[in-house]
Write a structure and sequence with these properties.
Order of helices and strands: EEEEHHHHHHHHHH
Number of helices: 10
Structural class: mainly alpha
Shape: globular
Oligomer: single chain
Radius of gyration: 22 Å
Strand order of the largest sheet: 1-2
Low-confidence stretches: none
């Protein structure tokens, strides 16, 4: 059962709250990112809406120019601090849904056009949000690995509980997220410190690994769609 901490500063007891904002990000007492993701989507939606009449619906502006502004003005609000996120599948789906919705509005792709999500990304020449988050997470991990051992971020990354027994199950910790991302990108976890020690090598490794993981995800989606269509065509055959 959760018990609020009792913290005093100069004899005054601080109020325990569920959420508070620190450096522009919302921190929750249960380590959940639900409030932060909701706030990020709201800020990105507001940034996108302010440019609707002037940019997105303007047929005289090229698509690549619109995408460039979208990256600079909208995605920066949406993905602020994403290198430290530990997301659930539901939270990632919410972010990807926003990404796809805005891209379809920018590219004027309607639902009846029956364009798949990966085709939208290809037309707009942009990657999925998962790739962007993975890239940011691994780049930040490289920075942490290169830090001195007495730095707090590095101590938190490598730290373990000194006492107590951890609960069983799949814990959605930052270190587990990093390991999962490394596996998806084809990067050996055992070689992390060696690769990250040289900034240029790590940057190229992350770029190549994230691009490969994106291609693998798209191939799986295409294969899954083809199987679904094959089953539908088979069901329509006369018996």
């Amino acid at each position: 059962m959760y018990e609020p901490p009792a913290i005093t500063i100069e004899g005054k007891l601080l109020n325990a709250v569920d959420n508070f904002k620190y450096l522009g990000s919302i921190v929750s007492n249960d380590a959940s990112f639900d409030a932060e993701i909701t706030a990020r989507i709201a800020k990105a939606t507001a940034a996108f809406g302010r440019l609707s009449k002037r940019l997105w619906t303007n047929s005289g502006i090229r698509l690549d120019t619109k995408i460039g502004v979208y990256k600079a003005a909208v995605l920066t609000s949406l993905l602020y601090g994403c290198e430290t996120w530990t997301l659930t599948k539901k939270q990632l789906r919410l972010l990807e849904k926003f990404h796809q919705t805005t891209l379809r509005k920018i590219a004027r792709i309607k639902w009846f056009h029956k364009v798949t999500n990966y085709e939208v990304l290809s037309r707009c020449k942009i990657s999925s949000l998962q790739s962007m988050i993975d890239r940011a997470r691994l780049r930040w991990t490289g920075h942490v690995v290169r830090m001195k051992d007495d730095r707090i971020p590095k101590a938190l990354l490598y730290g373990r509980l000194a006492t107590g027994i951890p609960k069983r199950g799949n814990h959605n910790t930052y270190l587990n997220s990093v390991k999962s991302t490394l596996r998806e990108c084809g990067i050996n976890c055992m070689h992390l410190e060696e690769l990250a020690s040289v900034r240029d090598i790590w940057r190229d490794t992350v770029k190549t690994g994230v691009a490969g993981a994106e291609e693998d995800r798209i191939e799986r989606l295409i294969e899954k769609r083809q199987k679904r269509k094959a089953r539908a065509d088979l069901a329509r055959l006369p018996t």
